[in-house]
Amino acid sequence: MTNTIFWLAPLGSASALFFAWFFYRSMKKESEGTEHMARIASYVRKGAMAYLKQQYKVVSMIFACLVVPEQRAFLETAAPAGTKGAAQD
User: Does 2 have pLDDT greater than 80?
Assistant: First the structure.
């Protein structure tokens, strides 16, 4: 029973990736439509990329603010006594 449950997550992930690839491929085969629709699609694409760029900036700043102190705390607690995190020869 436990072994079956263990494999559900990887199989679900693999099937989700397969269906995402399948739908992406079928969507890319379709045309963008008329010239007017293609122009609107380019505006949407430009706006989406601007949004993603801003999101990546915010997420990377939050990541840095969380990881750097955690890394320092881990190195200080994991170091042998008296070394303050630095390796001694």
Answer: no
